[in-house]
Design brief:
The protein is an alpha/beta fold. Helix content is 36%, strand content 20%. The protein is built from eight helices and 13 strands. The strands form two sheets. The protein has an eight-stranded mixed sheet, with helices on one face. Strands 6-7-8-10-9 form a five-stranded mixed sheet, covered by helices on one side. Helix 2 runs parallel beside helix 4.
């Protein structure tokens, strides 16, 4: 059944009704403040969402501008069954508080929260809903902000296959949770089954590369110096034919975000051991960019 703005209003109403006040020191003492933070693929509404880690990251990473780059709420999974624990409420409330305190919060819907595309041009609690955005860095780089699902042929032309893939991905995540529970008992670090499979299957690697090339090409065609996207759950910063390609990853497995410092430097950070750490070869200085 086609999802309409009325269905979306029903979901958003349920979420708002279940989101009570939460005690939360919005900014940790001594926290580094960023000019902008980009996050995507939170998949709130699913057991795989690492909501507690995400909330800790948001508390420790205050910013002037927060971009929610799609797949924030997983409407696909919520259609099957309602899953909305308190930790997911806390994340939503943290974003709403940030908007009330003067942070510009911009929501670019993705394919999993496509119901929100019926509200483009509107605001919810100060959160702007837009189809796409253009972010200008402190040193003048124009970054096109889009979720990226429009460049996924499976989503556009074989949506039934995308639903099948989504179910298989959820199965892999469930297996992964059981596997890592056992690894934790043995004192072993976290290991991602789905990420391993993605990087080992040649067709998956080819898909990632084709996706990155297509998004960068479109950004260049539009006259932008770079692009920020999500969708494929593969965090990366790299130059593609003169275009700065940035994928901010996900909050299901990789726990990554793209951040902009006040001098315009862009950096990919990973939330580990209770703090945001720079990922290897992820920083882009203003001069290099």
């Amino acid at each position: 059944m086609k999802r309409t703005p009325d269905h979306a209003s029903h979901w958003l109403g349920q979420i708002t009704a279940r989101s009570g006040p939460v005690y939360d020191p919005d900014e940790e003492k001594g926290a580094r403040r960023y000019r902008a933070v980009f996050i995507s693929d939170l998949h709130l509404g699913t057991p795989g969402c690492r909501a507690e880690d995400l909330l800790a990251f948001l508390k420790a990473s205050p910013c002037d501008q927060l971009y929610l780059v799609g797949d924030i709420i997983d409407g696909w999974q919520l259609r099957r069954r309602w899953f909305w624990p308190q930790a997911h409420n806390d994340v939503v409330q943290k974003m709403l508080r940030a908007a009330r305190k003067g942070c510009r919060v911009v929501f670019v819907p993705g394919n999993h929260d496509e119901f929100a595309r019926g509200f483009i041009g509107h605001q919810f609690g100060g959160i702007e809903v837009v189809d796409e955005a253009v972010h200008t860095t402190a040193d003048g780089k124009r970054l096109w902000v889009t979720h990226g699902d429009y460049f996924d042929g499976v989503i556009q032309y074989a949506k039934w296959l995308a639903y099948v893939g989504d179910n298989l991905y959820e199965l892999a995540l469930r297996l992964n949770r059981h596997l890592n529970h056992l690894r934790a008992k043995l004192g072993l670090p976290y290991w991602s089954l789905s990420a391993y499979l993605k990087l080992k299957v040649k067709k998956a690697v080819s898909f990632i590369n084709d996706f990155e090339q297509a998004v960068a090409h479109e950004a260049r065609k539009r006259g932008h110096q770079g692009v920020v996207c999500g969708h494929i759950h593969h965090a990366e910063i790299r130059d593609i034919d003169g275009v700065l390609y940035c994928n901010d990853g996900d909050w299901v497995e990789s726990l990554t975000a793209l951040v902009e410092h006040h001098d315009g430097q862009l950096e990919l950070v990973r939330w580990t051991d209770g703090q945001a750490r720079q990922t290897p070869e992820s920083a882009v200085s203003p001069a290099a960019a």
